[in-house]
Specification:
heterodimer, A: alpha/beta, 6 helices, 32% helix, B: mainly alpha
Chain lengths: 214, 231
């Protein structure tokens, strides 16, 4: 699905990663690890096309992403540090715009996504009145509405409670098992019922990928 | 370039973006009221400072209103991309699969609708306070209607370039004000011509041409600038 070869990126004269090869097929989860400031977020931003200061090639379904940009944008979902939630709007209003950006607005699906994210009854309350964890859930509710196959998630578990973490993990597993793929950064040890490959940005001199079954 | 289905999709995306922006403006009216209040106060100060001589006031009325409107548009720019940049909506806009050109055009249009149109509508009241003769009134409003969208589009380029900086006020002014000058010159020129009984269609046509140029090119520049700022 996604293949990156020989990625190199530096910031402020400091090499974040070099000779980095990634390959991800449908049905796989890739966890990017590394200490703070090791370039995890930068790597995700490079992969989703927000950061263009890099060398190397990124291929989507075998074609360099520059040639299939529109297709690639439809195929990925990116969740950054910022939640992309307007605090002055309600969860439903926020999700409605997200759906419109994807092409179709389905009010029933929005309601369903909110209740599955544990926000039933909070539909019409402005987001600034919600807690940090609930705001995160609004942001994550977009996953339920996304038609993208590849999800790039930057610290998706931040601010979630234990149950929320468990629910998100099983939701990610379901996505992967239905032919999707997930790249995520987290410091949290994943408890997922599927194979998780790990890339650690701290030891790029070592072999890049270690297999791990959880 | 786009097939029919994509066009229908594009229309609904632009509609949804417009509705969202107007909703945000309704919920936080400060963004809408600030430029308007600035405009009213600044124009009101001129008769107080320059004396009550109505002949003198009517001579400077067009210039005062145009310059103040221009500064008000620049002041309003901060609410255009700042919050989107901070909450991450801008990133979603940039990596979305919808054509950025039309989305940005919609954003700037909704911003103009909320922050500049009220100002243009209030102009006749302030112009009468400055004793602008009746024959200049219609042309003043027309020239502002043609000119302020151009100012918004140019201002949006500057705002897109500086949105990553925490204090961009002065830099924005330095970047953008020189580009506002042609619009200012033709706008006030049209009103002066009308007051002197000269034909104005040429100057209004020039304002229209600048607007057409800005509509065609500014969204491209805004998109490029936003990509640099987000990078």
């Amino acid at each position: 699905m996604l293949k990156a070869t020989d990625l190199y990126c530096e910031r402020d004269d400091r090499v974040l990663f070099q000779n980095l090869d990634l390959e991800l097929s449908a049905g796989q989860v890739l966890q990017i690890q590394g200490s703070n400031g090791s370039g995890k977020s930068t790597l995700l931003r490079v992969l989703c096309g927000l950061n263009t200061d890099y060398r190397g090639t990124i291929c989507w379904q075998g074609t360099p992403v520059d040639q299939v940009r529109a297709d690639y944008c439809r195929g990925i979902f990116y969740l950054g540090h910022a939640a992309a939630i307007k605090k002055i709007l309600s969860p439903v209003e926020n999700l409605r715009w997200f759906c419109a950006m994807q092409g179709t607005v389905d009010e029933k699906a929005i309601k369903a996504a909110l209740s599955e994210s544990g926000l039933r009854g909070y539909d019409d309350i402005p987001c600034f009145m919600l807690s940090a964890g609930q705001q995160r859930r609004v942001s994550l509710a977009r996953l339920h509405l996304s038609s993208a196959r590849l999800w790039l998630l930057d610290e998706p578990f931040t601010a979630l409670d234990h149950r929320g973490v468990g629910e998100l993990e099983s939701f990610l597993t379901a996505h992967v098992q239905s032919g999707g793929a997930v790249i995520l950064t987290t410091h949290h040890p994943l408890q997922m019922a599927c194979e998780v490959r790990v890339v650690n940005l701290d030891d790029l001199a070592l072999p890049l990928e270690t297999e791990r079954d959880v | 370039m786009y097939d029919a289905e994509q066009q229908a999709g594009l229309g609904s995306v632009m509609g949804a973006t417009l509705r969202r922006e107007l909703l945000i403006a309704m919920r936080s009216p400060a963004a809408m009221l600030n430029p308007l209040v600035f405009f009213v106060i600044a124009v009101t100060l001129f008769p107080l400072g320059a004396g009550g001589d109505s002949e003198f006031l009517s001579a400077i009325a067009a210039g005062v209103i145009w310059v103040t409107a221009l500064l008000a548009v620049m002041l309003s720019m901060d609410s255009l991309f700042r919050s989107d940049y901070e909450d991450g909506s801008l990133e979603q806009l940039l990596i979305g699969s919808q054509p950025l050109y039309f989305l940005l055009l919609t954003r700037v249009f909704s911003h103009w609708l909320v922050s500049s149109l009220p100002l243009v509508l209030l102009t006749p009241v302030l112009a009468s306070m400055l004793a602008l003769p009746q024959e200049g009134m219609v042309i003043l409003v027309l020239s502002l209607l043609l000119g302020t969208p151009t100012l918004s589009l140019i201002g949006a380029i500057g705002m897109a370039l500086t949105v990553g900086l925490s204090r961009s006020g002065l830099l924005l002014a330095v970047l953008v004000l020189p580009l506002f000058i042609p619009v200012l010159v033709f706008g006030t020129g049209a009103v002066q011509s009308a007051l002197n009984g000269l034909p104005v269609s040429g100057l209004l046509a020039l304002l229209g041409a600048i607007l057409a140029l800005a509509l065609a090119l500014a969204p491209l520049a805004i998109a490029a600038a936003l990509r640099i700022s987000v990078n």
